[in-house]
């Protein structure tokens, strides 16, 4: 039996959707008939190519807003832009994220501040702006892309682990505040997915741990993941589509691991 997620003509903002997981999730929503506001950094010509390709492939409207996730006013403007463009906002995916791998003793203060701003505080600003719109509609879905590092820690990732644990707590708080409004808030906690963010870490980890890049891939990155396989975009997209559909109405405040068993250990 074919299952419809019933998302046609819904509207989603996906932060950090010019690359990696965010791009894949935006594409999966577009394939279900959702109009999209893309966001993220990158070369303007490449971003325009991505935007136009998504529109052409799925026959939906795709807009781009270049809000910098360290800038509260720009984040609020992005949410207002989505509402103005499409007249509604059904789905907010707080996905933008960055990483820096270094011991606490030498961890640069500006890297700490940047990671907390992009990986945690931006979700507060976007959610704050989206809530009045979603409440007025009587329906909305907020999905925060946390991490297995929202549930457990690893060394050398202090800011990232703090931000991801923080976003799991923020998700639960939003879920409780919004529980009777028709708006849900949930977090997806992926294990390792092979995106530019992870590829960059391979070199960083090799330096921090004094190991070869091949050893880091085999014995550090996939060592944490019992399946010994990277998580696929489609596996995250399937959970997102469930969470944002009517079937997901009673899932609220959950932090769902999609990590090949990493956090089961
Ligand atoms: P990625 O580097 O491929 O993409 C990150 C996106 O965030 C890009 O679109 C980038 O432009 C955007 N971004 C970065 N700084 C920004 C800023 N200041 N303003 C606006 N946009 C900004 O990374 P990814 O691996 O796809 O990660 C996406 C999310 O998934 C992150 O929150 C990450 O922590 C999380 N995650 C990733 C993995 C993994 O293994 N890749 C695992 C768990 C969680």
Name a few traits of the molecule:
265 residues; alpha/beta; Rossmann fold; 7 strands; binds nicotinamide-adenine-dinucleotide
Q: Report the principal-axis shape.
A: globular
**Order of strands side by side in the largest beta sheet?**
3-2-1-4-5-6-7
Profile the largest sheet: 7 strands, parallel
Which oligomeric form is depicted? Answer: single chain
DSSP summary, beta strand count: 7
Would you state the CATH class of the largest domain? Answer: Alpha Beta
Total number of helices = 8
Bound molecules: nicotinamide-adenine-dinucleotide
The assigned CATH architecture of the largest domain is 3-Layer(aba) Sandwich
What's the CATH superfamily of the largest domain, by name?
NAD(P)-binding Rossmann-like Domain
The span between the termini is 35 Å
Please explain how this structure is put together.
With 265 residues, the chain is α/β, with parallel strands linked by helices. It folds into two domains: 11-191 and 231-255, 3-Layer(aba) Sandwich (Rossmann fold), CATH 3.40.50; 192-230, no CATH class. The chain has helices at residues 20-31, 44-58, 72-86, 109-137, 158-178, 196-209, 213-221, 233-244, and strands spanning 11-14, 35-39, 62-65, 91-94, 140-145, 183-190, 255-258. The chain has a seven-stranded parallel β-sheet with strand order 3-2-1-4-5-6-7, sandwiched between helices. Strand 4, helix 4 (109-137) and strand 5 form a beta-alpha-beta unit. Helix 3 (72-86) packs parallel to helix 4 (109-137), helix 4 (109-137) packs parallel to helix 5 (158-178) and helix 6 (196-209) crosses helix 7. The protein is globular and about 55 Å long. The mean pLDDT is 96. It binds nicotinamide-adenine-dinucleotide (NAD). Nicotinamide-adenine-dinucleotide binds at residues 16-22, 39-42, 68-70, 95-98, 118-119, 145, 147, 190, 192-193, 195-198.
């Amino acid at each position: 039996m074919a299952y419809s997620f019933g998302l046609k003509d819904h509207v989603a903002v996906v932060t950090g959707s010019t690359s990696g997981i965010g791009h894949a999730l935006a594409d999966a929503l577009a394939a279900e008939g959702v109009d999209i506001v893309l966001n993220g950094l990158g070369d303007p010509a490449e971003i325009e190519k991505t935007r136009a390709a998504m529109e052409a492939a799925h026959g939906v409207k795709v807009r781009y807003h270049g809000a910098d996730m360290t800038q509260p006013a720009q984040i609020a403007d992005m949410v207002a832009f989505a509402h103005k463009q499409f007249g509604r906002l059904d789905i907010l995916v707080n996905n933008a994220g960055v990483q820096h791998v270094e011991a606490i003793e030498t961890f640069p203060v500006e890297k700490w501040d940047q990671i907390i701003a992009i990986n945690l505080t931006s979700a507060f600003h976007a959610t704050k702006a989206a809530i009045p719109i979603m409440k007025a509609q009587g329906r909305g879905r907020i999905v925060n892309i946390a991490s297995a590092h929202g549930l457990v820690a690893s060394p050398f990732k202090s800011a990232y682990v703090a931000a991801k644990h923080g976003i799991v707590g923020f998700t639960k708080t939003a879920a409780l505040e919004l529980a009777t409004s028709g708006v849900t808030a949930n977090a997806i906690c992926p294990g390792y997915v092979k995106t530019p963010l992870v590829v960059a870490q391979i070199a960083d980890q090799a330096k921090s741990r004094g190991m070869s890049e091949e050893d880091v891939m085999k014995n550090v990155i996939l060592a944490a993941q019992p399946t010994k396989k990277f998580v696929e975009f489609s596996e995250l997209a399937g959970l997102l589509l469930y969470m944002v559909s009517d079937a997901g109405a009673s899932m609220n405040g959950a932090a769902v691991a999609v990590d090949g068993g990493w956090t089961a250990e």
